[in-house]
């Protein structure tokens, strides 16, 4: 009886320890889904088999070439089953989707020796920095119906190796169309915001003269200039009045001198 009770207690303990972990992971996934609104999701399921075949054919070709060169190709052929396992898990874990502001690329692939864990990669490419979505297909890819997507960045031209490259997308044209449509909508929204901002600015135009768009500080300065000019004009008028009075005084004195009788 005692051993049975101990087993029950261990099971309940394991259940209690695992339940918060599962709920925590689910909560994190839900929080991540709520934070990012997905507009379009690329699919990889349709091309999984062809992608694995393409990677296998590529690996075999490299192995045969290295057999002729140094003999290392024998070890590569022995490694082929592990390689196929890595490629299959790679394409199954790849996620590529479009959000209102970015292109999100996530992948979890095993390392070259899967016993050492997984390699996680996540990249967010902001839509304003996207110049174009390039669809590529080489000769070997065309034999298996596999396409590659390359996201080009805006700005100084960089080597193609610096761009984000994703292989095995089922319908690359649809994803490219979704990204370009979202970019066009963002440009339209930005243009409409600029127009609304211009319309909200108060109309400061008073006359058709160029001086109608002068800032208020300059209007104050212009108001001060006529006031100082009026003061100068008043001073000139006062001086002119004083001069006229003096002239009248001189004329009266001369008239009085001429009107006196001569002895």
Describe it.
This protein has 263 residues and is an alpha+beta fold. The protein has a domain at 36-198: Roll (PH-domain like), CATH 2.30.29.30. The strands form two sheets. It has a four-stranded antiparallel sheet with strand order 1-2-3-4. The chain is rod-shaped and about 140 Å long. It has seven helices and seven strands; from the N terminus they run H-E-H-H-H-E-E-E-E-H-E-E-H-H.
Give the structure's gist in a few sentences.
It holds the Pfam family DUF7642. The chain has helices spanning 2-35, 48-69, 73-78, 80-93, 139-144, 172-200, 216-259; strands spanning 40-41, 95-98, 102-110, 118-126, 130-136, 148-153, 164-167.
What global shape is seen?
A: rod-shaped
Instruction: Tell me the number of strands.
Output: 7
Overall CATH class of the domain at 36-198: Mainly Beta
Sequence of strands across the biggest β-sheet: 1-2-3-4
Question: Helix/strand-derived class?
Answer: alpha+beta
| Count of DSSP-assigned helices | 7
Radius of gyration: 43 Å
CATH architecture of the domain at 36-198: Roll
The H-and-E topology, N to C, reads as: HEHHHEEEEHEEHH
N-end to C-end Cα span: 167 Å
CATH-wise, what's the superfamily of the domain at 36-198? Pleckstrin-homology domain (PH domain)/Phosphotyrosine-binding domain (PTB)
**Average pLDDT over all residues:** 75
Biggest sheet layout: 4 strands, antiparallel
Query: How helical, in percent, are the residues?
Result: 55-70%
CATH topological fold name of the domain at 36-198: PH-domain like
Portion in beta strands: 15-25%
Uncertain regions spanning at least 5 consecutive residues: 1-31, 204-227
